[in-house]
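user: Please review this fold.
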Amino acid sequence: MRLILAASVGLAVVGAYAAYRVWEQGERDEQRPVDAIVVLGAAQYNGRPSPLFEARLDHALSLYFAGIAPRIVVTGGKAEGDRWTEADAARAYALAHDVPANAILAEDQGRNTLESLRAVADILADEELESAVFVSDRSHMLRVLRIARDLGIDAYGSPTRTSPLEHDIGARVQAYVHELGALAVYFVAGAAPPFESLETASSGR
C-alpha cells in the first residue's frame, strides 16, 4: 500500500509539473529575428482555414510583416477525402494577404505534429535555415518546441492569443489534457499519440 501510495503521489507531482510547464510555455512569447516562421496546421474546409487555423495564420503573418523572418513555412497534410492539404490552404491564405510566393515554404504530408516537424526540419536544412519561431495555440507550444529542439532546430515559440480556444473554457481544458497525454507518449515512446490524427486534430493537432 505504501508503494502504491508513493507511486500515486509521484505520478500526481509529475502530472502537476507537466501541466504547469505546458501552461507556462504557452504564456511566453519568444519572438525574435530568426530565419523562418513556422505555422502549425489545423483544420481547413475546401481550402478555407478553420477559425482556429486562421488565427494561427494571422499571427504568423503579423510576425512576417513585422520583419521577424524572411520566410514562412506552412504545414499539414490532408485528411481522407479532402482535396486540399492544410499547407495548401495556408499558402493560399498567405498569398491572398500579400506574402510573396518565394517567401513561402510548405510541408504538405504530415498528419500529426511529429510528422510535420520532422519534415520541417528537413526543409529548413535544405534551405540552410537554422532558427525559427513556431506559431500555434498556447497549449501546443511546449510539445512543438521540445520536438523541434530535439530535431536540431534553434526553436522559439510565439503562441497566438486570438484563437477560438481563448473564449471556450471547455475546449481549452480539453486541449491541455490532450497535450499532457501527447507529451507523455512522446517522452516515453518518441512517437505521436494514436489519438492525434488529422481527423481528430481540428481543434489543435
